[in-house]
Input
Amino acid sequence: VQLVESGGGLVQAGGSLRLSCAASGFLFDDYAVGWFRQAPGKEREGILCFSASDGTTYYADSVKGRFTMSSVISKSTVYLQMNDLKPEDTAVYYCAADPLKYYGGSHKYCSGKYGLDYWGQGTQVTVSS
Output
């Protein structure tokens, strides 16, 4: 079981990036999926979490209205579309997933109350001002 992120890079403020998270060894159909980020000197932040149990998505206030996960989850890849990027979005971004154990509660995956067992290696996103 493995998750591999890609798509990070350097972008100017106001620009866009799309991150990919490819799964091997499983399909996302019946999984909870989360995107997290960690900036230097800061705690890891759950920014977007989706639960396939009820189809709901939680967005952190810091990214609401700017970041979305693709409306269609291909069976083996999910995408994080990031628009109107800001310098404060600079961080290492991680995707994570876990077989569904709970109904709903997408926000609880982002808060850490519900654990996510599988994590990618992270991809760096740098936004210049």
About this structure: The longest strand covers residues 91-99. The mean pLDDT is 93.
